[in-house]
């Protein structure tokens, strides 16, 4: 599993949809 960290939770949700199950997207909240 690969982890991707982005700034906003909304962005994290969207990116999660595109990347699929091999990736886990987390939000840093700024």
UniProtKB/TrEMBL annotation:
Q: What is this enzyme's EC?
A: 5.99.1.2
Q: Which Pfam families match?
A: Toprim (PF01751)
Tell me the keywords, alphabetical order.
Isomerase
Q: Does the keyword Isomerase apply?
A: yes
Q: Does the keyword Acetylation apply?
A: no
Recorded GO molecular functions are: isomerase activity
Enzyme class per UniProt: isomerase
List each copy of the Toprim domain by range.
1-30
The protein's name is DNA topoisomerase I
User: What species does this protein belong to?
Assistant: hydrothermal vent metagenome
């Amino acid at each position: 599993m690969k982890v991707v960290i982005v700034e906003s939770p909304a962005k994290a949700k969207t990116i999660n949809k595109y990347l699929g199950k091999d990736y886990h997207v987390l939000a840093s909240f700024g």
